[in-house]
Structures are given as C-alpha cells and as structure tokens.
Amino acid sequence: FFFFFKQKTAYEIYQCDWSSDVCSSDLSFQSSFAALDATTQSNVAAAATAMTGNTDPVLLSKLGEAQDNLQYAESDESSGFHNHNYLMSLLNDANDRAKEVLTALGL
Fold this sequence. Notes:
mainly alpha, elongated
C-alpha cells in the first residue's frame, strides 16, 4: 500500500476568496488601521487648533512630527495592509505626540 499526502502550499494556506479580492486578514489590518487613523486625525487636528498662536518651539516640533507621521502613514494608500506594523507605529507615534501637545497645553 502506498499513501500519498499532498502538502498545502503557502498560497493554499492563505485562506482567501480571490474572486472577491477581499481576505479576512486584510480586513482586520484595514479596520485596525482605520480606527487608529481616525483617532490620530482627531487628536492631531485638536493639537493643531490648540497651538494656534503658540510659539513654543518644543510643542511646535512635536506637532510637526505628529502631522508628518500622520501624513506619511496615510500616504501609503493601502489602508494599513502593506507594512502594517510600520504604519501602525507611525500612527501611534503621531497620536502620542499630539496627546503630549494637548497635555502640555492643559487640554
């Protein structure tokens, strides 16, 4: 007797319905990115508004970093799918910087 077992390829293991062009793992990445992106957008906008007229160079630098990281993360246009960990790191950093500005201003 001979038994043959077919080992699945990485392509077969990656469970996805290619006819729909949407995979469950893709949606998970995109939904976590979208949630953090929305929060970060809100905090960066609030920090920018709060900084109107403020000339503190440290706070201006933090706000600039937050805006740059947010813009860079959003410019990827993959909604967090490509380089997910890096993009999430950029968003987390932008959010943290914006919150630092808001905290320093007593907001």
